[in-house]
Every structure is written in structure tokens, then in C-alpha cells.
């Protein structure tokens, strides 16, 4: 979280200063190719966000990838000593698919998050929207609003783990990250 705040503040300052900020990184294309590049994380005009990835080749050529085009499976970069890895996640029909940030890189499960904001009657609420992946590539997105699918979809992912299923019944949506971390620590 500390790294996210630092990156956010730096992005804000850079945007105000109108300076483009690039970080060395990689993209994995849908055909499986890995490309080393510079990822634009702050600056003027288009920058990398939930639905757009802006990269620059080492020759200086800039290219914009839209998440909805499904050309990029994953990308990552290192900035201020922290690693940032994002994966394209196709989510349920009520939400837009996009790039989610890796927050738990476990052997059993990988947990990604994106924060979604919604405004109703003038009140804006921001909630985490998770995606959990198994090593075989199976995944489910976990919406955490009041009528969200998070528990139902976790039951599907955990169907081969009776102990985890039992414990799942006792957790709230605010405990998803801690729950997945605990599952990844178990042998």
C-alpha cells in the first residue's frame, strides 16, 4: 500500500508538472511474446491506467494498448524499488474488463485487485474488485459490493479445498486479502 501511495503522489506531481514518467518494464502479448519496453506511468496526454497501457520502445516509438482489445495479457515494471505487475482480467458482464494489480503472488493462488468507484445519489463509493487465479489458469472475479459475487465465486475456486470452504463461511468481504494470504501460507 505504501508503494501505491508513493506512486500515486509521484504521478500527481508529475502530471501537474506535465512531465512524462517512464519505468522500465515488460509486456506479455496475447501470442505469448514478451517485449521489454518503457511503460508510461505519469505525464501529459495518455498514461497507463485500468483500461489503457502506454508503452515506449527503446527506439522511442510510443504505442497505446486498450485492455478491451485483449492484446496484452500482462505487464509489469519496477519503480522506486517496488515491483508492479498487472494482468488483464475479463470480468463479469456488469463491469468493464481491464488490468488488475497483483497484490498476492502465492503458490496456490494469485490475487489481483482494481478499485472501482460508483456514484449513487451524489455519494461516491470506492470498493476493491478482486480476481483470484489458480496455478492452472482458472480464475474468478470477486465483486465486493453489497450484492457482490465474491463468496459464490470463491466457493467455486476453493471447491477442491474443504477446509478453506469451511473457513470461507466465517469471513467478510473486507477479509478477502488476509484470507488468501493465509491460504497461500498453508502447506
From TrEMBL:
Top-level division of the source organism's lineage: Bacteria
Alphabetic keyword roster: Signal
Signal peptide start and end residues: 1-19
UniProt-recorded name of the protein: DUF4468 domain-containing protein
